C-alpha cells in the first residue's frame, strides 16, 4: 500500500491536470503544484521526560507546516504509537486542502508524538504536553500556526500546552490553540461540530439527489466523537442507521438503531461485542458492516478502512467519509468506476476545523458566541461549500473529491501567485 503522503501527492497531481488549462503561464503553475507536494517546514525533536518512577523516557515528536499562503498553519496534534513523519506530512497537506475547501483563512499543519498515551500517568502526560509545547513555541502562535486536538488528545492536553506556551512568551494568547476547555476560551459547539458538519453534507447531498431521509439506510463505522454525533443528527431527522460499529464489532438492526440507547449500552458494556444479542439486533463484524447493502456507508473510524482488498464487497451507493483518508486511491478509482458517489473527507469532516476557526475568531476578539450562533455559522459554511463543489461536479463531470481538490488547489495556487512566491 502506498504511504499516506504518496496518496496525498497523487490526489494533488490528479486534480492539477484539470486546472492547468486555466493558467496561461504553465511553468509557474507547475512550480506551484510542485511546492504543494512538499511541506514548507517539518520540525522534529526527541523529547525526554521524567517518568513517575524517576527514570527518563524519550519520545519522537513532529510538527509539519505544509503551506501558509492562505493564512497561518492549522491542524491537530496526534498521540499514537503509529505516528510517522510521512503520516504527519500527509495530514498537514490534507489540512491545507480542507481549509481551502471550506474557505477558512488557514494553511495546513499537523503534529504528533510517537507514544501510547494509555501507558503514561496523567502527570507524565502533562510533562510530555508541556515539553512539546515548549519545543513548538518559537514556531506557533495566533498568526503563525494554531494547533488543535486530534487522535488521543483533547481539551486537557490543549490546556496544558496553552499554559506552557503562555509561560514561555510571557502573555496570554488563547488563540494559539483551539479545542480548549470552555473556561480557557474554548468554543460552544466544538464537541459535536465534526459530526454535525457531516450531517449538513448528507442533507445537502440528499436534496440534490432527491434522497428521502426516512427511506435512506446508513451504516456507520466508528462510534467515537465523530460517528456518534453524525449518527445522532442523521437519525434525528429520520435517516435509518441500520448498523454502527466500534473497534470490537458492529450492531445491526434492519429497522434502524436508536443512537442514544446504543450509547448507553456502550457505556454499560464497554464495547459493542460485549452487548448481549437480542431479538432486535444482531452482532456483526466490521468487515460485514462495510459490505452491507445500504444507501450510505459512513467510515468514521480510521484511515484506509476501504482498500484494494475489500472494495469489491462494498455495496453502498454513497460513501460519506467522516474519518480522514478512509478510502485508498486504488479503492476510490474502483468505486468511482462503479458510479459510487464518494463525498470526500476534506469536505465532510471540515466542520471540526470550521468551529476551531470560530474559536480563534472569538479569542482574537475577546468575545464568546452562543451555541446557536456557532451552529448557524457552521451550517452556512458547510452548505455553501457543498454547493460550490456540486457546481464543479456538474460543470466538469468529475467526482466530488476531484471537485473539492480542484477548488482547493486553485485557491491555494492563486494565493501563492498573489504573494509572488513563484
Ligand atoms: P474517536 O477516537 O473518538 O473514535 C474512533 C472510533 O472508531 C471509536 O468508536 C473506535 O472504537 C472506532 N474504531 C477504531 N478502530 C476501529 C476499527 N478498526 N474498526 C472500526 N471501528 C474502529 O475518534 P474521532 O474523533 O471520532 O475521529 C474519527 C475519525 O475522524 C479519525 O479519522 C479522525 O482523524 C477524524 N476526524 C475527527 C475530527 C474530530 O473533530 N474529532 C475532525 C476531523 C476528522
From TrEMBL:
Keywords: NAD, Nucleotide-binding, Oxidoreductase. Residues 187-420 form the Glutamate/phenylalanine/leucine/valine/L-tryptophan dehydrogenase C-terminal domain. Substrate binds at residues 74, 98, 356. GO terms for biological process: L-glutamate catabolic process. NAD(+) binds at residues 194, 225. GO terms for molecular function: glutamate dehydrogenase (NAD+) activity; nucleotide binding. The keyword Nucleotide-binding applies. The active site is at 110 (proton donor). CDD domains: NAD_bind_1_Glu_DH (cd01076). SUPFAM superfamilies: Aminoacid dehydrogenase-like, N-terminal domain, NAD(P)-binding Rossmann-fold domains. The record marks 150 as: Important for catalysis. Belongs to the Glu/Leu/Phe/Val dehydrogenases family. PANTHER family: GLUTAMATE DEHYDROGENASE, GLUTAMATE DEHYDROGENASE 1, MITOCHONDRIAL. This is Glutamate dehydrogenase.
